[in-house]
Each structure stands twice: as structure tokens, then as C-alpha cells.
Design a protein that fits this description.
The chain has 6 helices and 2 strands, in the order E-E-H-H-H-H-H-H. With 131 residues, it is mainly α. A two-stranded antiparallel sheet has the order 1-2.
């Protein structure tokens, strides 16, 4: 039986609920300064205790609690650019794509899904987005 893992509804990467994966996530969060800044003491204690005691999470209730904490950590570790790409950049690309399609550009319908175009729009309009 494989270990349960954290599955994001947004399509981001998954974190298996094993000791090694959780320890690796913790090290990454500590290095980025997210561990103490974005987690409450009780959340840190729960994750620390889980890493020390459990080899692989089997309890549904524990998995649900750890999943919330892992989601919080993953969101906090996302870069500002990536977060803006998912929100502001994507909507801007969709608007521009629809305008170009209305002008007769058939290839424009693919622009809204082109990550390079979304990244370009996000970075070029970075100063106009609210932080």
C-alpha cells in the first residue's frame, strides 16, 4: 500500500505523507524563513512530532491535519511572481487573447494557456499589481 499524499486541488505538486518527505519540506521551509513566520507554534509542534514518531501517516484524521499545514507551507513558499502568474497574469492573458481573437488572430486562442506569455505579461506589468 502506498503512502497517502497531499493532493492539491490547484494542480501543484504533491507531498507524500512519509517521514522523509515531511522532514524535507520542513528543512525547505526553515531555509526560506517560512517555518516560524507563517506557522503557529501548535502547527510546528504537530509536524515535528509527526516527523519524529510516524514513519508513514495512516490515520485519516492526522493526514487531514497535516495536509492543512502542508498546504499552508507550500503556499507560503511560492514566489510572488508565480502567485501573480496564477492570478493576475492568467486573467490578463485571457483578456488579451480574446481581443486578438476578435481581431481575427486564430492562434491567439492558445495564448491564454501559454505559460511563457503569462510570465512575460506578469513581469512586464509587475509594478501595476498590488502586493
Amino acid at each position: 500500500m502506498s503512502a497517502p499524499s497531499r493532493k492539491s486541488s490547484k494542480g501543484t505538486k504533491q507531498v507524500p505523507f512519509t517521514r522523509e518527505a515531511l522532514a524535507k519540506l520542513k528543512r525547505k521551509a526553515v531555509r526560506r524563513g517560512v517555518w516560524f513566520r507563517d506557522l503557529k507554534q501548535s502547527e510546528r509542534k504537530l509536524l515535528d512530532l509527526t516527523i519524529r514518531v510516524v514513519q508513514r501517516i495512516r490515520s485519516f484524521m492526522l493526514a487531514r491535519l497535516v495536509s492543512r499545514i502542508v498546504d499552508k507551507l507550500c503556499e507560503a513558499m511560492e514566489s510572488r511572481i508565480f502567485r501573480l502568474m496564477k492570478t493576475e497574469g492568467r486573467s490578463l492573458a485571457e483578456k488579451i487573447s480574446k481581443i486578438a481573437e476578435a481581431w481575427g488572430n486564430r492562434a491567439a486562442k492558445f495564448w491564454a494557456k501559454d505559460s511563457g506569455f503569462i510570465q512575460y505579461l506578469t513581469i512586464s506589468n509587475l509594478s501595476s499589481f498590488k502586493s
